[in-house]
Structure formats: C-alpha cells, structure tokens
Design a protein that fits this description.
Blueprint: H1 2-20, H2 33-54, H3 82-86, E1 101-106, E2 113-115, E3 120-129, E4 140-146, E5 154-155, E6 165-173, E7 180-189, E8 195-196, E9 201-206
Parallel strand pairs: 2-9
Antiparallel strand pairs: 1-3, 3-6, 4-5, 4-7, 7-8, 7-9
Length: 222
C-alpha cells in the first residue's frame, strides 16, 4: 500500500512540474500522459532497486548430512533341533550330544566262541538308547574296525526312544581259509554318518580246539 501511495505522489509531482513549465516561451516540449506514467514507473523501479541493494544478503547454510546407519538383524534358528545344529552332513562333523548308546549284552556268540572254518552264524547285540533324543529311521549299525566276517550294515527302520533297549542282529560267516582269533567292532551312526556311543564287538576263534585231559594224581596208599 505504501508503494502505491509513493507512485501516486511521484506522478502528481511530475505533472505539477510540467504544468509550471507550460507557459514558457522557450518551446519546452510538452510530455504526454503516457510519457509521464513511464517516467513515474522508472522512478519507482529505481527506488526498489536501491532498497534491494541496501538489504543484507542471506547466506545459504547447507544442512548437515546424516551418516547412514546399518542395521544388522540376527535370525533365530526357528526351532531347529539340536541334532541338526551339531551334526555335519556327510559325516565330517561331530554327532549331536543328545545321542547316546550303551552296550547291554551279547545275546548270541559270546566272546571267544569256537567256530569251524566257514561256519555261518548270527551275532546279536543288545544295546540301550542312553541319550535324550530318539534314534531315527536311517541310522546305521556298521563295522568300524577289525573283521567284518561277511557282515553288512543294518539300517534302522524304526524309532528307538531314549531309555529303550534294542537288538541289532548281523548274519556272519567265519573265515574259511585261515584259523585263529577274529574280532570285528561295530558302532551306530546318525543319518549324517556321524558315529556315537559304545563300540561293541564280535570275537570268535576258528580252528580245532584241543582240550587237555587232566592227569590224575595218584592217591597215596596208607
């Protein structure tokens, strides 16, 4: 509003000045209304320019840049069993600590049983699930040392719960081309091939057995 008043005042001043010079004989040129308005506008713009130059210039200060924050999320196992966490596929790791096996008894073929060369027999061990996890189908009873004597691995086809006993039976054949004492050690492994628990064995003697006849000690005659 003040700028508009200033424009009007300037216009009136210019008009009065021109009127005062209107009676001169020197032939001063008379300005038209359009010229008067143009002059007033130019004067007004000049004042605005001076006002703008007199005002202080604002300095632009950039906002601080925030350092990005990296958020790392750790996923929980989501109910993965302890066996899956501790066993390594392919048998290269350690079995789960929840698996256990304890030897109970030789059901057949006690240690040192006498055999003839090539004799067939079935060895049966009674063992106990001494761990806290089930033995699952896919666990394997297999020879780990010594003589297999024709025995092949037995794959478990049922669940054996902790505290339950189980019997593994393996058909075997005594060596037919040699004599002596033969021993094979067997053990149970999980589905990843990791062995655990006791290592029961089978031990036989092949060959003729000689039993010494005891010599009678004569009784002195009184």
């Amino acid at each position: 509003m003040q700028k508009m008043k200033l424009f009007i005042v300037l216009t009136l001043l210019v008009a009065l000045a021109l009127s005062a010079c209107g009676g001169s004989d020197e032939g001063t040129p008379t300005l038209t209304v359009e010229q008067i308005q143009t002059l007033a506008v130019m004067t007004y713009q000049a004042q605005l320019t001076q006002t703008a130059l007199a005002m202080p210039t604002e300095t632009f200060t950039p906002l601080p840049t925030e350092t990005p924050i990296t958020i790392v999320t750790f996923a929980s196992p989501g109910g993965t069993s302890s066996a899956a966490l501790t066993s390594t596929p392919g048998g290269s790791g350690q079995p789960s600590t929840c698996y256990g096996l304890t030897f109970v008894d030789d059901v057949t073929i006690p240690d040192g049983t006498q055999m003839t060369p090539g004799q067939s027999f079935t060895k049966t061990w009674k063992v106990l699930n001494a761990g806290s996890c089930d033995w699952e189908p896919g666990f394997v009873w297999n020879v780990v040392a010594g003589e297999a004597m024709g025995g092949v691995a037995v794959t478990l086809n049922q669940i054996v719960q902790p505290g339950r006993q189980f019997e593994f039976s393996v058909p075997m054949t005594a060596p037919s081309d040699k004599t002596g004492t033969f021993k094979g050690t067997w053990r149970l492994s999980d589905s990843n091939g990791n062995f655990f628990g006791d290592s029961p064995w089978v031990e036989i003697k092949v060959g003729s057995s000689s039993t010494a006849t005891p010599t009678e000690t004569p009784t002195p005659t009184p």
